[in-house]
Amino acid sequence: MFQHGFVQMPGGVAVRLPADLAQLFVLRSLAATLAIRQDFDLDAVEDVKLAVDEMCSAVTIRAKAGELLICEFLARDGRVDVAVTTLSDVDEPISQDTFGWLVLTTLTDSVSSWTTPDPSGGFRIFAMLSVKRPGRHGEIGSPGGTV
Fold first, then answer.
1. Fewer CB within 10 Å: N-end or C-end of the chain?
2. Which pLDDT belongs to residue 12?
């Protein structure tokens, strides 16, 4: 998915913006739009927005001053995948011992975070999440649906 610190999701949408918490509304809006296009119900759309906000916030607060946040979204087959990266001074992925991580693991089907040394100095922090569209009543695998 990432190559040399850049996102590589074929068919995805990549966004680069300043690593600034005030800019995250752009990512929340894009996440909501993609979830709607994948036919997520309104509650699930809000969950996707909250998960994207939490993950991107956690990465943004670790960014070096003046760095870009690179985020890519891929929506297909009833799912939304999101990957984010930035350059950091600390070798510290998103902590799994926080309320924020609990929120992420509750709202997503999968989430991960890691760091790697960056050739330009510092560390590159990465995070990824995936959310599948919840089944609807009557759909295969949903409550009341056919198995």
1. C
2. 87
